[in-house]
Amino acid sequence: MSETPESNEPEETPPAKPEDSHRVPAEDEVLPPEPGPSTASPAGQEVVHDGQGTGLLYGIDDIPPPAETLALGFQHYLTMFGSTVAIPLILSAPLGITKGHDLALLIATMFFISGVTTLLQTTFGNRLPIVQGGTFSFLGPTFAICGMATLAGTGWEVKMQHVQGAIISGAAVEILLGATGVVGSMLRFIGPITIAPTIALIGLALFKFGAPVAGTDWSIGGLTILLIVLFSQVLRKTHRAFELFPILLAILVAWGVAALLTAVGVFVEGDPSYVSTATLAETDWINVPTPFPWGWPQFGMAAFVGMLAGYMASVVESIGDYYACARLAGAPPPDKALVNRGITFEGIGCLIAGIWGTGNGTTSYSENVGAIGLTRVGSRRVVQAGATIMLVLGFVAKFGALFTTIPQPIVGGMYCALFGMIAAVGLSNLQRVDLNSSRNLFILGFAFFMGLSLPVYFEANPVDFSPPGPQPTVLKDDQPVHADDDALAALGLTAEATVGEARAMHAKLQEVFSGELSGTNPGQAGALDAALETLSHQPPPSPDPISLTDEQTVYPDAGALGVLGLTPAATVADARAVHDKLAALVEAGGPTSAAALDGALESVTHAPPPKPGPNAFWQALQNLINTIGQTGMAIGALIALILDNVIPGTPDERGLTATHHH
Fold it and tell me: Alpha-carbon distance 277 to 353, whole Å?
């Protein structure tokens, strides 16, 4: 009888199967604890205990019947479907993808690569029942790459080539970190106080994809949540189907309700729960993914270093997922060798994803880890079956398009349950930690709070290391003005005017707009008309005013003269000319204040400096800081890791004696 590192009490597991009783495990194989007595569920199903009170229907090495294996694998496919489809949809805007056909190919390729990398990871990598798929950690760096000045105005294929280059370069680094054991060597610094916020924040940091999405239509989103709770918690002991397929059943029922209400006209196009089949009709049946479908990758330092931030977050997230998956699947806690193999094969997966042009990498899927907790099925074979389904259906684009008809409220409702389960699994790592210790409470509280708070700050105030550019050049009076169309219109000038002419016109108009000469705002057309009317008519003794000829001097009304910036010596013709000039400016949206005139003069008399060339290092560092700063899980993990290893504490206090091998 063996003891797990988590407990000093022997665990209960099913008796060894005859065909496996004398099998010698492979050197890199993760096996559950040695067999012991078993118990049975109310439905008669033998239950595996992981030593911590979580009953498993199937342990990590168990092989369910073929039909159940396929159905459970299909459930994993559905569980990761929402995130896998969401990533290309999110990337379509910054990349500039406008054709539905291109987007459909990208989605199908994502599923194909997910199947390939999941099979590699579960067969040769860490061998945990963990699904590999696209990662949200890469979105921030990808946005930064697409927004680089050098890619402005280029087609989406060119942007994708630069993203591919960054992913391939980063994959080489991740492979190196795993293969050399650097990642595994860091595990001695990682205890439960670090693991708990790392795993919990994976779920908590995704809160924007839960209720806000489900709440776009609570009738369907709420129904999905209710069904998941009902099937996975209330009815799971009444029928085997509820134990094995709570998520799948909840999705199918809610999806069917939405389709029915769409058919009878309750949901119409534009409603969040409307079931649209447009994409299904437009998608081809067969899709054959090929390497470099968008052209050869382009490599650049800024893109590479920026993408490393995504890789750092992905590695930390994956380590947390390994611990969560092992815990839920009843496997021993991951050791250095397992973590190193897992990260190595995640790097290989990212390399494959970069070559096949998914625009993203691969990482461990947290939602599928949560599905293990809900279904209590930790079988590796089930996940491999799901990977095979992903692989096959990656060729059948029509089938993938079918599931794009699942309304978003259903996906949001599913995330509410799954991500909440992940957060709870993270917190469960604290059961061996002394929670009466003020040291531990401070570290945990600070890590959780900053992991949720700092990303909000960085989203609103991203770091900008752009160097200040040179000052504008002051032009001489005999030089042509700087051709700023808006400023020229404000001064009533053309691009052929000189700086000297611009200064003279500015001085003239400044008199007009001076508050000392007029209490009336000349930026209003009515004020200009009234001023001209007053100056061009002389008040007579009789009721009718006398119109003055153009050659005559104006009627000397001080207010009207101030509006048009004239003196009593001006003629009526002068008044009409100034009026027409100012009226044209006002109609064209010209200046309505002296400050506006000053701004226009500043613009036309100064040549703008050349834009500073891109600084690859500072741009990359900026991308790195902003990406990490917007990743709550990485922030919480980093804070907990540093404080837990810097602030003194005993091994018992830190919970290390229960989680580390001696």
Answer: 29
Amino acid (1-letter code) at residue 393: L
What is the C-alpha separation between 31 and 35, in angstroms, rounded?
11
> Helices 572-587 and 525-535, interaxial angle, to 10°?
170
Total-model pTM: 0.60
pLDDT tens digits, 33-85 = 333 333 333 333 343 434 344 478 898 999 999 999 998 998 888 778 767 87
State the Cα–Cα distance between residues 121 and 342, nearest whole angstrom.
7
pLDDT 10s digits, 287-322: 888 999 989 999 987 788 778 877 877 887 788 889
Residue 215's CB: how many other CB atoms inside 10 A? Answer: 15
- Burial pattern 590-607, b for ≥16 Cβ within 10 A else e, equals bbbebebbeebbebbbbe
Residue in 109, 134, 83, 133 with CA at minimum distance from that of residue 395: 109
CB 2, CB 34: distance < 8 Å:
yes
Contact yes or no for 381/69 (Cβ under 8 A): yes
547 alpha-carbon distance from chain centroid: 71
Q: Express the helix, strand and coil content of the chain in percent, nearest 5 each.
A: 60, 5, 35
What span, in angstroms and rounded, lies between the C-alpha atoms of 19 and 309?
A: 46
For the four alpha carbons of 557, 560, 563 and 564, in that order, the dihedral sign comes to negative
SS3 label, residue 363: strand
Q: Say how far residue 583 (Cα) sits from the centre of its chain.
A: 50
Adjacent-strand bridge partners of 39: 47
Give one DSSP letter per residue of 268-324, joined into a string: -TTSTT----HHHHHS-SB----SSTT-S----HHHHHHHHHHHHHHHHHHHHHHHH
| 505 membership: H or E segment, kind and range | helix 499-512
Residue where the block lists tokens 């996906």: 411
Domain ranges within the chain, ordered by starting residue: 66-428, 473-607
Residue showing tokens 């942007």? 159
DSSP string, 431-484: GGS-TT-HHHHHHHHHHHHHHHHHHHHHHHS----PPPPPPPEEPPTTSBPP--
Question: In one letter, which amino acid is 481?
Answer: V
Task: Name which of 117, 98, 125, 188 is nearest 390 in CA terms.
Answer: 117
Residues 6+ apart with CB under 8 A from 649: 437, 439, 440
The pLDDT tens digits for 404-435 are: 788 889 988 988 887 888 788 788 889 889 99
DSSP for residue 551: T
The answer to whether residues 564 and 579 touch, using CB atoms and an 8 Å cutoff, is yes
The SS3 call for residue 571 is: strand
Bridge partners of 55, per DSSP, are 49
For 618, counting Cβ atoms within 10 Å of its Cβ (0-12 exposed, 13-18 middle, 19+ buried), the class is: middle
Q: Is the C-alpha dihedral spanning 259, 261, 264, 266 positive or negative?
A: negative
For residue 3, give the 3-state DSSP assignment.
coil
d(CA 234, CA 238): 8
Instruction: Give the phi and the psi of residue 338 in degrees, each rounded to 5.
Output: -65, -45
